[in-house]
Amino acid sequence: MIGLLLLWKAVSLFFLPTFLPSPADLLASIVEVFSHSSAYLIVGKTLERVVIGLILSMLIGASTGLVMGLRRSVESFFDSWVMVLLTFPAISWAFLSVLWFGISDIAPIFTIVLIVFPYVTMNVWEGTKAMDKELTDMATVFRANRFLLLRKVLVPQLMPYLFSSLRISFALSWKIALVSEAFGAGRGVGKELTYWFQGIRVDMMLAWGMSFMVLMVLIDVVIFRRWEKHVFSWRQTAVA
Amino acid sequence: MPLNAVEIEGLGKTFPTPSGLSRFAVIKSLSLRIQRGTFASIVGPSGCGKSTLLNIIAGIEPHDLGHVRIIPQDGTNAAARIGYVFQSPRLLNWLSVEDNIKFALEAQTIDRGRWDERVQKYLEMVGLSGQELNYPLKLSGGMQQRVAIARALAIEPDILLMDEPFSHLDEITARKMRVDLMHILEHAQPTILFVTHSLREAVFLSEEVYMMSVKPARIFKHLRVDIPRPREPEDPRLFDLEKGLVKEFFAVLERDQQ
Asked: What value of ipTM does the predicted structure carry?
């Protein structure tokens, strides 16, 4: 880690701070960025789009994946559509959504959802194939209705898949959010990146990009991993 | 006249052959009546269709011929309550012991106000009081199977189906479970249809023993075990019964093979 920082410092000596800043320069830029209160609003705006996009992707992806897994007839119908969505170039969605929705909140959210939800669908669909039929039979013998079966038997078996989907989707969502904001958004971290890109200010671009990245990693570690650990506490077997 | 809990008439079940071109009979014109409150066992070799029979009774496997009727204890036309103890516990590992039992109670739409009382009563019966909040994976295999038994008893079933419930346990645990099951039955008197490949287990536990032959499954022998409960596993009378049945069983097997 220290070696890496030293190398970075050494290389940066040969360039202008605005082209390749040294670690100290970058830190100074970050401090400068967040000395303005508007920076928090900008980060908040992007975060809001990420969260909404993520929630919608998870809801749509999980329900389509589940339905595909439980109903053969739906499976073949959706299968090809999910593949179409997965292979459609991500960049096209970013352009299309700006053309369709203009400079608005909807454009980046639309882009996130269309790119991310097919991954969730695939993952959850895969999960339905690993479900234990013996448990379904047990529930049927005890006359559990569909809702109870879903709630207490099926969805808990999908939890590992839902959590891996959630974390992958989150990582994808914020990256897509930045790209799509760069194309069309009134305000957002992606917009800042394009602004400083046009001014050829690598230091400011890195300051924005890296601080947002740190925030995203923190959310993953502090919220998602803890939540996951809590949900799977039943897995801890007896301490012999 | 004693009331029946289960009536099976001319039951037939076929499976497709591996080639899928024709079907072979697994169960052929099987009839069986089990009186209410009786512990009945079906004994047969592995793969004779015992589990298939239980699954048909439980309604998770379709059958081709005949009919199966489970008569509710309360004399109403309500759907019968079926308790099932499988070979493996089939617990919901993400739910606590207590919630596993409540799952069955909820499935049976039993009044929520009676859940706690049922949970307490039946956990105590299987010797697991105090384990309510524990998770299944923290319990031994034998304890997990006790939870499964408590879950099946807790719905106070019209028929309790048990499919070789001790076959996955080591012999010492299995032996203790059999003795404990006998004591449990002094408190609760459900109608039980117990499937096993062990004659010893069958004669030790049951009041009625039905012997089943292979392909297609049919019942060739019915025996009453009149030794009063609780019984001792080492009771020489049980051993004599077992010996007699083994002899008959081999006679039938040989005849079938000719």
From this structure: 0.90
